[in-house]
């Protein structure tokens, strides 16, 4: 980056505020800036990059707050002028009120959530909301937003239930309670990531996204389970789900060959789920292994399957190529059946979660696989903390993301920065989502969904307002982008 003739000198900034002296010299600063920009000096390097006037004046947050500046070989007035110019361009007053109100009225499509079925008195509680429920994990350091006593949860309680209790509202609404919750969230359709659907969680308000992880771990998973306490519990649950899938196709154990496993278990399971209304298949694989699914020859995968099927548990390195092959096979079948693939891409719950393994860049070879270009891949949770890595992947024609969980965990102002970067690059690939989930008795899927929906809309309004005030978009385009993120991108992707 460079700034015209200003890089005749090196400029060093520190973070100590010193606004008064700079503002006092405003008139002189403007003159100094005009004079500096008329110079014809060659560019110099600054922090290893080339400076541009726009990057220093508009993009750098330091100029929005006023920082102490030290200048070598350049008059202090030049630095002051940059700060003044940056402050003049900075968004003021939060989100545009009209735009925020418009965003609040748009009925959204929630790309990812875990709604809980309403059950009548005496019926067992619903447990189908997740294949790997978080309460089975060992304790971790919870993010502030998820800790007991959160003011946001108390606000959600007041907004949802008023002077009543949750139990009273549920009893009064009955089987219509989940639909009522969607209405409070401003959600028209919710993609329900569940093991199975059921009473009160039904189309057209709720659309199914089942789980496919159990299908890529067909062998004895004992060695994988032994890696961490959390994985020990997770693989026990995956084994139960795989047994359920086997039972649904009339089997009690996996077939003897890979070809039979594919034709008698994997493909029929996916086809059955598609016939049951599934829009996508979900992988929570980041809780179980890395997202690096390498290309593997079918013959090599068949040898591994034949060697270990019904026998001893394979080691992690021996087992991985078979998992990689099965993942890509399932992804290809999803493309054939008209379903998307959803993947958890974010630092996940639990103190043993492998954050680097969830880096979306691990999926690059999958997204570069020409045989999978008919399959849309939706990277759930926006890849946090790998915000820019996932942004780069959006240039792949079949790559999408949503910002579920970020809308619950991060303050709107923080999320707005992430959204702005994505919207400036590939706005047609970004989707609204909440990850509504029953975290606890205090924060159920209702409260977490309400908070995430509110925060997500506020963040979107802030991001679009900043782009509008910086001259990147028009007011009409801001409205269009809001509708794209909140509903139209998902409508187009899933054919809703």
Give a quick summary of the entry.
This protein has helices at about 20-25, 25-35, 55-60, 60-65, 75-90, 95-105, 150-160, 165-175, 175-185, 220-225, 230-250, 260-275, 300-310, 315-335, 365, 385-395, 405-410, 410-425, 445-470, 475-495, and strands at about 10-15, 70, 110-115, 185-195, 205-210, 280-285, 340-345, 375-380, 400, 430.
Explain how this protein is built.
The protein folds into 2 domains: 86 residues, no CATH class; 318 residues, Metal-dependent hydrolases (TIM Barrel, Alpha-Beta Barrel). The chain is built from 20 helices and 10 strands. Helix 6 packs antiparallel against helix 19, helix 13 packs across helix 14 and helix 18 packs across helix 19. Helices cover 46% and strands 8% of the residues. The protein is α/β, with parallel strands linked by helices and 496 residues long. A 5-stranded parallel beta sheet has the order 6-7-8-9-10, with helices on both faces. A 3-stranded parallel beta sheet has the order 3-4-5. The N terminus is likely disordered.
Write the layout of secondary structure elements.
Elements: E1 11-13, H1 19-24, H2 26-37, H3 53-59, H4 62-65, E2 69-71, H5 76-89, H6 97-105, E3 108-113, H7 151-161, H8 166-173, H9 177-185, E4 187-193, E5 206-209, H10 222-225, H11 229-248, H12 258-275, E6 280-283, H13 298-308, H14 316-337, E7 340-344, H15 364-367, E8 377-380, H16 387-393, E9 399-402, H17 406-409, H18 412-425, E10 430-431, H19 445-469, H20 475-494
Parallel strand pairs: 3-4, 4-5, 6-7, 7-8, 8-9, 9-10
Antiparallel strand pairs: 1-2
